[in-house]
């Protein structure tokens, strides 16, 4: 279907972005391209539908030479492409107009366009959305509209350029489901991704590095090579990590790239063991481990709350009078069924509803929830950007209803918003970082000191980057500068909204390390994320939001025990916990709390399968096992 | 994130929604001229009934209409105040130095305010009932005859459509940036100099955002085979129907009413 022979390309004529790529993608194949940021994957994708022309050699799509200007539109309608950002690839205000954009350009008859629009929307599960406005859709829905827009051109190849990277778990799942359904109907799919779990489902995987194909093969061949992947700034799927960890402990299993296969293999191993009568017992150490699962340092600091939120409600659409009327009406409907009434109503005008929450000094609090669950509104309350309409927020002893206090607290509670590098504006890095301290009215010397120290805290050197324009830096460095800009305010509490969004696996673990260091240096950290694996690895406590209310709260072990409930609100559990649950369903007698990191699950399984007793010592030091798991990037 | 609502489309399936966008644009133009020629309160009566009729048929909720007009009301206030202090005649009601209000100026301020509000309500009806892409398509077709004198009608239409599509997007992004800078201690009210600095810290990220979006959007349009007007078809081909004729008749009636009243024939 697609043939590339020695394709080379350079944006500036000096540094090659692609350096002799040889790849053949077969008809009907699900092909996955992995690689760190800047490895040339996106550049390559743009060659497949003639958005870019190779400097040397050729790309052939379905027998058509992509460098032939006559064939450009044939190639683009044969190989359709979905881009990364849901916000800037839709052209029209209404869904149906956007889906029709491609066929309209191809000059298809009106009646046939209508037919194609209907079918494309059906294929992505958006029937009934024809007259909806595109900007009001969720990210996942927007990406599916973009997919429908491509399908309406009736392509034979679908190229997804990190199309799922900016979506929440629910949106990602919907997009993947649509892609797999298309693949089953014979569509050739080329998917560029950072997510190893997605790559594990592919027929073949190629790993790019510096514009070359570094590895090529089936997922089983590629994704199990831990050292090689680490060198390429990637990590293994969690199931492979588990497999390797078990092997390292002497359990004779193979690392499987798919979770289901890994679970089946471990279950099989257990059955064989128990038939032979040599299976170990895990129940002996159970109570001890369950105690260890509660982080010990939590209790030391629990006494001093830094942010206290009680009975906070917020509505964007209701005026004060309407809010009072709402209360009266719901009081009349009976106080007992309040929670279910508000919790399940999607048309609820409340962004936050009766939220009570305490952040303690020195803790690492995780805030989970999908898009629209009220997380962002809650974050804006934490430093007084929004003042509470009902209920109260006290931060560091200041009542944020009070306008003056709300302004004062901004210096104490630093918020790093999503994609913070997009808010950089000054001529030089140093000036940008100085913006906050400057606004605080500090002396020149103090501002200079803070700029230097905050840049050092994020691992940048004032002398080398200080005078550069922030726009010259790489994406990861820009984000570090934005972090420094908030740290320069010398906050006591750091609130991070999706700090790892859009980063490749290597940069992700760098940033997790950075945040962990800041936490250990004494900052109280609140991290918003929908990656349950990240939350599981770093947080002392997790709060799950759903439809504006607190859905669950507790230690990771306590929260992840509610796997089914979390699933029902569109959130996942960490991969390790997911595998533990699947194993339990396959009759492996595992206890289910506290198995949310690959390390702890591996220890537990090793106990069961070979009956070795060193498991307890590993799990007892919770903090250490967490750090280990994080450093491995699993 | 609250949706940005100025002038944006209210989905529906009324007769007004189904009118050809060209009809709406042309009749909107006629309505504008008609309203401008009205010279008395009496003349505003048919205009007001026309506006009420349109909204009744279109079934756009009053709340939505008001929220879409709210940003424009500032203009009404400014014009009314200017009139209040300029167009003097009749008995003087109030005076302070060179400022004065007379019966005549009060009358003309009230008249201007009503006329402008009705004009805006009428024009909002178009943007509330027409998706932007249809609006731009109608605009493009109406301008098509001027293409022979070198007017890039299609491109203008496309530019307008994309601008309207990205308006809510940029509103959201600007809010986010302003929030982020406010979290770093930027004050919204900090004297004129502070205001200018605040502008820079919000405007620069906004502009870099515009360029970033423009780059991907153009690639995305390219990838979907956009190559200008040539050989392009449309999902909903524009066609005049019975509703359009009816709308034209109703607007003509309005015009006649206003002319009759203006000439004081009744």
Short overview:
The complex is a heterodimer of chains A (634) and B (266). By secondary structure, chain A is an alpha/beta fold.
Kindly describe this structure.
The complex is a heterodimer of chains A (634) and B (266). Chain A is α/β, with parallel strands linked by helices. Chain A has 3 domains: 2-231, P-loop containing nucleotide triphosphate hydrolases (Rossmann fold, 3-Layer(aba) Sandwich); 238-292 and 575-631, no CATH class; 300-568, 3-Layer(aba) Sandwich (Rossmann fold), CATH 3.40.50.300. Helices cover 43% and strands 19% of the residues of chain A. In chain A, helix 11 (259-276) crosses helix 26. Residues 281-301, 335-346 and 612-634 of chain A have low confidence and may be disordered. Chain B is mainly alpha-helical and 266 residues long. Chain B folds into 2 domains: 1-143 and 237-266, no CATH class; 155-228, no CATH class. Chain B has helices spanning 15-18, 21-37, 41-58, 62-69, 73-86, 103-129, 132-143, 153-183, 191-223, 242-262, and strands at 92-96, 99-102. Chain B has a two-stranded antiparallel ribbon. In chain B, a hairpin with a 2-residue loop joins strand 1 (92-96) and strand 2. In chain B, helix 2 runs antiparallel to helix 6 (103-129) and helix 3 runs antiparallel to helix 10 (242-262). The longest helix of chain B is centred in the C-terminal third of the chain and has 33 residues, at 191-223. Chains A and B meet through helix 2, helix 3, helix 4, helix 5 and helix 18 of A and helix 7, helix 8 and helix 9 of B.
